[in-house]
Amino acid sequence: MLFCLIYFCPTLRPFQHPFLFPYAEPDNCSREFVVEASGKMVVLEKLLKKLYAGKHRVLIFSSFTSMLDILERFCQLRRYKYLRLDGNVNRVQRKFDMARFNGSNEYFIYLVR
Predict the structure, then answer these.
(1) Which whole number is the average pLDDT over 83-100?
(2) In a domain, 17, yes or no
(3) Number of domains, the chain
(4) Of 53, 31, 33, 30, the residue nearest 41 (C-alpha)
(5) Which of 13, 16, 62, 108 would be a feasible disulfide site paired with 67, CB 3.0-4.6 Å?
(6) Does 57 reside within a domain?
(7) Is there a domain that residue 58 lies in?
(8) Helices marked H in the chain — which ranges?
(9) What is the distance between the alpha carbons of residues 7 and 88, in angstroms, rounded to a whole number?
(10) Rounded-to-10 torsion of CA 89, 90, 91, 92
(11) Which residues span the domain enclosing 53?
């Protein structure tokens, strides 16, 4: 089953993270600080754990590529298999990635801008 977290949890809609502000990320922060710095990121982590345990797949939409960068770091931190679609992805790669996401359950998250 595929979930769209914007509709599942509407309070995540105005998603903010302190690392979106210039120079807000500390120089010597732990990898876990990406999650701990934002209460909404903590909620998102809890939701994703439950969805991952239930073998669901998730689309996460964001208007900002900088937010996708933070979510990508989060996916790498938690070792979630993910794909990313933003303005830097060419048309051929986009079609290929969409077919990979829709064709198998290998990928858990699709980050979309």
Answers:
(1) 93
(2) no
(3) 1
(4) 33
(5) 62
(6) yes
(7) yes
(8) 5-8, 33-36, 39-53, 65-78, 91-103
(9) 26
(10) -100
(11) 2-10+29-112
Q: Average pLDDT, stretch 89-113?
A: 93
Query: What mean pLDDT is predicted for residues 28-57?
Result: 80
Rounded CA-CA distance 91/34 in Å is: 31
Rounded average pLDDT over 40-62 = 90
pLDDT over 60 at 94, yes or no: yes
Q: Is 23 inside a domain boundary?
A: no
89 alpha-carbon distance from chain centroid: 16
Which amino acid belongs to residue 66? S
- Residue tagged 């900002």 (tokens): 64
DSSP 8-state secondary structure symbol assigned to residue 58: E
Q: How far apart are CA 7 and CA 13, in angstroms?
A: 9
